[in-house]
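Most newcomers find our protein records easier to grasp once they have seen one. Each record describes a single protein and holds just a pair of labelled lines. A learned vocabulary of local backbone shapes supplies the integers on the structure line. Nothing more is needed to start thinking about how sequence determines fold. The record below serves as our worked example for the rest of this section.
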Amino acid sequence: MKTLLRFIQKYSNFLLFLLLETIAITFIAQGSSYQKSRIIGLNRQVTGYIFSKVDGAREYLSLKGVNQQLVDENLELRNRLDRISGQMDSTIVISEFTKPYHYFYVPSRIVHNSVFKQYNYITLNKGKKQGVFKDMGVISDHGLVGIVLESSRNFATVIPIINRDFRLSVKIKSNNYAGILRWEGESPLYAVLNEIPFHLEIPKGDTILTSGFSSIFPEGIEVGIIESYSLEKGNFYDIRVKLSTNFQSLFHVNVIRNYKHEEQQNLEDRIR
């Protein structure tokens, strides 16, 4: 206790300066929306830089597992390429690759990730400079991750599935029935699928995929599997979905850029 008091006494002027500086910045931010946006942007840049440095050690410890995942993924991609080459005429393949891209994937690394809050967020080390913007989808090698909420020059924040504000249209693989995926704020391993009618047969273990009903995600990205379901109220099931992505061990993701997003969004906005 005496040591703490001596420290405060020794650095009292400096601590007072920091306090007054914080109060001044707070007043400036509250008095002007422009100043507030500038301060938020600066804060995002600073925290993103700090997170990127601190996260280096955590990523290093996981390199063995990450390398094995990359080996497995490369093997799967090679197998797919061999199957395509054997089944398709080479002239068809060439003509398909000359068409404009619909989706482009920006690889990114997670520098900060909260898991056990009600409103979790992820920070990526890619931003507007690298082509990452608001409302872009984010996936991992295993499945769906979330949606970009905001981006600065070199960083972006993502709202993941495990955030109570997250909503997305998904479908059941076996019958293509679509519903809304959401998270109830409990385990980061599970989410809930709603709006599936009670007359439908629900097979346990069936896969949940993105429906393609938005311009954010392509159709068919894996979300999870059906673990259980109940019919407690109304005419719809409450379906418990075990998520494909393990957010506690997540390091590397891909941000999805849809080159036709703006065209689709403008058309939908005109008819609303």
About this structure: Confidence is low (pLDDT under 50) at residues 89-99. Residues 33-61 form the longest helix (29 residues).
